[in-house]
Amino acid sequence: MVELGLPAIIGYLLGSIPVALLVGRAHGVDLREAGDRNPGAWNAMEQLGGRAAAPVFVGDGLKGLVAGLAGLALGGVWGAYVGVGAAMVGHALPVFASFRGGKSVMTFGGGAFVLAPLAAAACLLACVVLSAAVSFRLGARVGVFGFPLAQLAVDPVGQVAATGVLMTLIGLLYTVERAPGWLRGRREAGRPTG
Prior knowledge:
The structure is a single chain. The chain has nine helices and no strands. By secondary structure, the chain is mostly helical. It has a domain of 113 residues. Helix 3 packs antiparallel against helix 4 and helix 6 runs antiparallel to helix 7.
């Protein structure tokens, strides 16, 4: 129990550190009220610029990386998954920021370097190359969503499935954020919401 319980607690508390809010406040911006109102790395980049948002990308990634390393040390590979997953939950529902957090993409990205370092390095390279050649938006998406495919080359299917569970959390966070808009649009059009 300790080998999974402790990584969950450590991961959640690390994930709850509101890096984007702290960096935003240092620049006079509340990211929960600006842009898409998501206190995460992407909104920080759009509101503050790439250079000012760099600490958010690094900090959010470090939350997943450190949580994964703690989990690995305490509970092996499954402890690492628990640590990274808990950090993602902490980022999304941070105890230190009134449970209003981001979507955990960078926290997942940092944790990926513990879960499958070679696959994560390949995806980071793809992100950098595509960002330079086309756009950061495309590079980031290929890097994140290509990770399970790259991981298939180096890890057992069970671990890739566990990665899928973590990525599902990201998808759920996007869905929950947009659901009120979907429902509001259906209500305004006079269509049933069920």
